[in-house]
Amino acid sequence: MRILKRVRVAAVALGVAAGALMASAGPGTSVSQAAAPADGAAAAASRIYGVEIVKEGGGVNDLQPQSVRCPQRKVPIGGGGEASFGHTPWGHDIQLVSSVPLIEGGQPVGWRTSAYKTVPPGMTLTTYAVCAYPPNGYEVIQSATMPAPNDKRTTLSCPAGKVALGGGGEVWDTDAWLSKSHPTPVSGTAQPTQWALGTAGWETATAVVHAVCTDPVHDLTVTHYNAASESPYGGLLKCPAGTVVAGGGASANGPAASLISSRPAKAAETGSRDGWWAQGSDNLKSSNIDLYVMCTEPV
Q: For the chain, what percent of residues have pLDDT higher than 90?
C-alpha cells in the first residue's frame, strides 16, 4: 500500500500484564498478554513517558470536525471519540465517521473526530487524545485514499521493526460510517504492527487509514475481549492494576454495524482502573463487538 505521509519526531516508550471487563455486555472471550516486541527486538524496546489524556466536548452539527490538542512538547499516541444525543441509540441513529490524529503544519498535535446522526435531537461529540512525550521511532503514517468495502477490514502496516500503538481513520462518503478501528494482529505474544479500519453503509465507501507507529514498547500489555448483547453493545475493557491506558480500539461486527464510541477512560472515571470504552449499534436484536486495550506502566 502506498504511503502518502509520514510525520517524525523523537524520544521514548513502555507497558504491562492482564485485563478485566466491566461491560454492558454478555459472555465473551478474553485474551490478554504482555506482548513481546516485534522482531524479537527486546533490547531496543523503550518506555512511554508522561502519558495523559485530554479531551474536548460540545454540541456539533453532522460531520462537523472537533479536535483536541496535546499539551506542549507532547504528541498523540492514540485517541478516539464518543457521540451521543440524549437517548439510547438504535441501528443507524448516530455514528462516528472519523477518528484520526490531528496534523497541523505537518506535525501531529492532537486528535480529531466527527460524527453524524439520522434522527433528532442535537448531537454532542467528545474527542479524546492519549498524549505522551514522543516515543522512540515515533511517526504517524497515512494510507492512500482507497475503496473500503462494507464490513471488510483494511489494514495499514507500520514500517518494518515498528509497532502500531494507535491509529484511526475517516470515511469520505455521506452514506457510510466507521464500524472498526483497532490494532492488529493481537494473537500470540507479538506487539501489533498494523492498524485495521472497517466501514459500513449502503455502498462501498472511500476511506483513509492512519497509524501511530513507534519502536517496540517495553512490556506493553495487549488485551482483547469479545462481547455480545442487544444494541447498543460494548463496555469497558480495563487495564491491569498499576498500569495506564496507552491506546485501544474496537470492532462492531455485522454488515450494518456502527461505532458510537471508542475512546480511553481514566481510573477517576471508571472508579477503579484505566481502560478503553467502546459501544456499537446495529439493527439486529443481538450483535457483538471486539474491544481492545493497550496498557503501560506509568513513568
A: 63
What is the total count of domains within the chain?
1
C-alpha–C-alpha distance, residues 104 and 266, integer Å: 27
Residue indicated by cell numbers 460531520: 63
Calculate the average pLDDT of the chain.
Answer: 84
Count of beta carbons in the 10 Å neighbourhood of residue 262: 32
Q: What is the three-state SS of 93-141?
A: CEEEEEEEEEEECCEEEEEEEEEEECCCCCEEEEEEEEEECCCCCCEEE
Q: Which amino acid is at 132?
A: A
Domain that holds residue 69: 3-296
What pLDDT is stored for residue 67 in this prediction? 98
Has residue 214 got a pLDDT over 70?
A: yes
Q: What is the pLDDT of residues 131-157, one digit of tens each?
A: 999 999 999 999 999 888 777 789 999
Extended beta strands in 145-193, E state: 146-148, 153-157, 163-171, 176-184
CATH of the domain at 258: 2.60.120.690
Question: Distance (Å, rounded) from C-alpha 19 to C-alpha 195?
Answer: 21
pLDDT of residue 133: 97
Sequence letter at residue 79: G
Place of cell 467502546: 278
Dist. CA 276–CA 249, nearest whole Å: 7
* Segment (H or E) for 40: none
Q: Which residue has the cell 494473537?
A: 187
Identify whether the C-beta of residue 280 lies closer than 8 Å to the C-beta of residue 252.
yes
